[in-house]
Amino acid sequence: MFQVISQIKAKVVFVLMFVLISPPLWAGLTIEISEGYDNAIPIAVVPFGFEQQAGGNSQGGNTPANKAAPVDLAQVISANLRRSGQFKPLLNSSLPSQPSNVDDIIFRQWRSLDVDNMLIGKLVDQGGGFYQVDMRFMDVLRKKQVLGKRWNKVPKENLRQIAHQISDLIYEELTGVRGAFNTQIAYVTLRKKNKKRHYTLEVADSDGFNAQAILKSTQPIMSPSWSPDGQKLAYVSFENGRSEVFVQSLDGAYRHKMASFKGINSAPSWSPDGKKLALTLSKNGSADIYTMDIKSRKLKRLTKKWSIETEAIWAPNGRSLFFNSDRRGQPQIFQVFLDTLEIRRVTFEGRYNANPEISPNGRYLAMVHGQGGFNIGLLDLHTDEFNVLTDTFLDESPSFAPNGEMILYAMNRKGKGQLAVVAIDGNTSQILKVKNGEVREPAWGPFLTNK
Amino acid sequence: MFQFKKLYLVAGVTSVITLLGACSSPPEYATKGTDLDVIVDTAPGVHDGDGYGSESGSGVEMLPLNRAGQDFSDGALEGEGGDPMADFQEIEGVEPVIYFGLNQYELNDENTRLVKHFAQEMLNNERLTVKIKGHTDERGTPEYNLALGERRAKAVAEAMMLHGIGLSRIEVISYGEEMPVEVESNEAAWQQNRRVELEIR
Q1: Residues of B in contact with A331 (CB under 8 A)
Q2: What is the span of the domain harbouring residue B172?
Q3: Whole-model pTM?
Q4: Can you name the CATH fold of A39-175?
Q5: Which residues lie below 8 Å from residue B165, measured CB to CB, with a gap of 6+?
Q6: Architecture of the CATH domain A184-444
Q7: Nearest-by-CA chain A residue for B151
């Protein structure tokens, strides 16, 4: 059931630091997980065995003493599962043994630990920077393999991705919901150096690792929005002294200026088919909602009001948009239907409801809810039940995980912008921050692979 | 008679304006998965048909021009029915910053007089143009605040026009909550950040 989470319990706080990739000055998110463990399911994630491929190198089939596994896959997987709030991986120190083959499992050891499921696996160095990954997910009670999979010739730099895919498989097996660990997030960092502001638009894995800057500027960057195919980002950049909307392909092939009309150009949001952008433009007076056909750049104006209309997002079926309007004095969420341009008010609870985000299944509307402070609110569009999910400070920019289970958002702690993740049932949270700077405007990307 | 005590409290605003105006270096544009930053030209901007956009193109270093020295034919549009500056009083040393209440964008009497003062300065020198920059505090959503900052800047622009400044001498920009002068998260800082800055030159 929904609850206001007051339990950022800090019972267990894990701090994962990670090595700076490139360029070292910019990369880097630190994750801190604070959560209650009340209903989490215990699970055993056994450290993966590491071997040299027989015949591949001179040392034969044994693990060379001078070589360690390039990535601790089990550690990545157990951190993922723990972060979901639904699982409680055993600590390595409480594992009775560390089997990496099915034959080596002594099942009674594990049954006595009250663990129903365990993951074992193996990493094999195939030489030349390639690795084979084997995983087996076991039902301890039935002493049977539930899932088994092998990845062959995986480049070293993709091993974490494999760990995320394994996490997704386990998550789906146990919850029935597709996992969203093998996804990416985009966000903006702000660092000050010699009294100058440095903004970067970065993309990182969902666990904050592999952060890479895709745009650096001394002027503000705002509102990154993922294309549905995960290949492009739309965002607002002030690089020319005022707000303009750009679309950049993540492979670096192109960067297009999409909107630089008189006035503000902001709040880009991709249509579900990837063919249109919703934009906020004030070229005809006050801020209004437009859609732009990306190919022809033809605009369609959806609102015509003296008031502020902004922060539009598309319903998953592409037939309507939710947006923020202060036509009634304070910001509230409205919905506009594309066929008739009919507009209806959606939020009624509280004085300030802004920045709507719709869950991928169209059922939940997350928003910034102002009532005293600013927190993330969640409206169930089926039942009209409304709940406040967060109790951090100055919460904004909510963004759903592509499986709809978690919401990534920005907040302020100790005077610094940080990111946090909360489950939609309010039951777990985690915090992502950057060293020596602030991080804001998060956007959770789509699934990276077809299912 | 009116007081500008509050305004004299403002410190360092001029330097902030300089920072905003002059230090825009081109953003770097890095490709994914490489160590090298690859600079890629920006595609041509969209043209609106209303004259804006012609100077866009490279995506690099496009700052609004310093228009000093240019000739403006509609420099001084005097209002009808008398001189709008009839009750104008010279004010020395006032920072060109106008402050607003929470979620407010209308000008109070004091702010109206302040705008009048700067309008007069521009009427006295027809070569001057003004960049009107709207800002908000950090509370509320960034995109809403971008629109709110514009609303504040436009309220000031309209007041300037009412006092005879032609539209062509005015440029309105909103920065929303992106450029605070005070980075603290408290009432005193928020008050300083809810502002419109006038850059007259």
Answers
A1: 140-141, 144
A2: 5-24+65-200
A3: 0.81
A4: Rossmann fold (3.40.50)
A5: B77, B119, B122, B123, B130
A6: 6 Propeller (2.120)
A7: A286
